[in-house]
């Protein structure tokens, strides 16, 4: 695929509520119910990579002496809509925002209002 075609498919970066380091639960797919930490967010495709979730065996060719070949486990991206942030009190929840009197914005759990 050409560079321009790839950019078009990726689309305009989405403003994502999820961040690297967030603890999320998987809502669909083969790893439904699993929880893990986000290791990467990809706003261009509205996807996230969650540690230990959606792992695919990848047959990697040896590209250099440093990068060894063979079968490796690779975390594949999940669509952001297929994961939910985990609140320590409520479990899988949605993210809301609270704006304080000083104008600062905080991410909160929509159920209990705890900061996430
Ligand atoms: Zn909560």
Topology readout:
Blueprint: H1 3-10, E1 23-26, E2 35-42, E3 47-50, E4 55-60, E5 70-75, E6 78-79, E7 83-87, E8 91-93, E9 95-99, E10 105-109
Antiparallel strand pairs: 1-2, 1-7, 2-3, 3-6, 4-5, 7-8, 9-10
Protein model, in words:
There is one protein chain. The protein has about 120 residues and is mainly β. The protein has a single domain (about 10-60, about 70-110), classed as SH3 type barrels, CATH 2.30.30.30. Helix content is about 5%, strand content about 40%. The protein has one helix and ten strands. It has one helix at about 5-10, and strands at about 25, 35-40, 45-50, 55-60, 70-75, 80, 85, 90-95, 95-100, 105-110. The strands form three sheets. The chain has a six-stranded antiparallel beta sheet, with no helix packed on it. A hairpin with a 3-residue loop joins strand 7 and strand 8 (about 90-95). The chain is elongated and about 55 Å long. It starts with a helix and ends in a 7-residue tail after the last strand. Bound molecules: zinc ion.
């Amino acid at each position: 695929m050409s560079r321009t075609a790839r950019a078009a498919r990726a689309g305009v970066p989405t403003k994502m509520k999820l961040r690297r380091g967030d603890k999320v639960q998987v809502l669909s797919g083969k790893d439904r119910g699993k929880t893990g930490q986000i290791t990467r967010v990809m706003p261009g495709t509205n996807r996230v990579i969650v540690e230990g979730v959606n792992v695919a065996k990848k047959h990697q060719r040896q590209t250099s002496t440093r990068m060894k070949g063979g079968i490796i486990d690779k975390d594949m991206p999940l669509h952001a809509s297929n994961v939910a942030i985990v609140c320590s009190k409520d479990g899988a929840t949605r993210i809301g925002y609270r704006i304080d009197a000083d104008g600062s914005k905080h991410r909160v759990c929509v159920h209990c209002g705890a900061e996430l």
